[in-house]
Amino acid sequence: MSRSQKTVIVTGASSGIGFGVAQALIARGDNVVLNGRDESRLVAAAKRLGAPDQIAIAVGDIGANETPSRLVEAALSKFGRVDGLLNNAGHFDAKPLAEYSNEDFDGYLGFLRGAFFNSQAVITQFREQGGGGSIVNITTNLTTRGMRDVPSSGPIAAKGGIQAITHNMAIEVANEGITINAVAPGLVRTPLLGDDEKTLDQLGAMHPMGRLGEVSEIVDAVLYMLDATWTTGVVLPVDGGLAAGA
Q1: Is the pLDDT of residue 192 over 60?
Q2: Whole-model pTM over 0.90
Q3: Regarding beta strands 84-87 and 55-59, do their DSSP bridges make them parallel or antiparallel, or are they unpaired?
């Protein structure tokens, strides 16, 4: 039996995991709403994806009040419905606790705010469509297992909050056929890590499997969670063994 076409909102879609998920969704015939703060980067990403009939663009800071409704409106305007949301947007800056500023912290909390209110807006739309739908959040294995060599209390404050709302929102809407899960990657080879091969090798060696994750490996997990119908409230580590132990 063929699967029905879905419309999925992807935040932080210009590069990295967000772009990889958008690419995979389009390849299997789904529609995607690409979100990011930089319009020129979003337009460039859409061109690289090369499927204009399957793409809508919604520019907006994930922490801004107007962004959640803008994302849903973009989906409805072009595709008529929303079936899924990937809360992927985020920034990760590893540095000692004493070096985080108030501005740094406010920025990280903007990502938590975005995940919360994006989910609220999408759940409201799911209900208007008659129920059902899926939300996937990107967190990190560091929310439950700190690493001495990756001090990151600032971003982890936001990621920990996103992990907490994953559990709580999932239970609240579980009887409506709505699934809410999270994927918790280890360190993944994306532009956020830079391109210095020596540094990348050192980061990869921190994982029991001895290497960095690849975007495609996170994409596989996200696609499973977007399609899951009897899995909810789960945080899935995809981290080269870090969750199991060093």
Answers
A1: yes
A2: yes
A3: unpaired
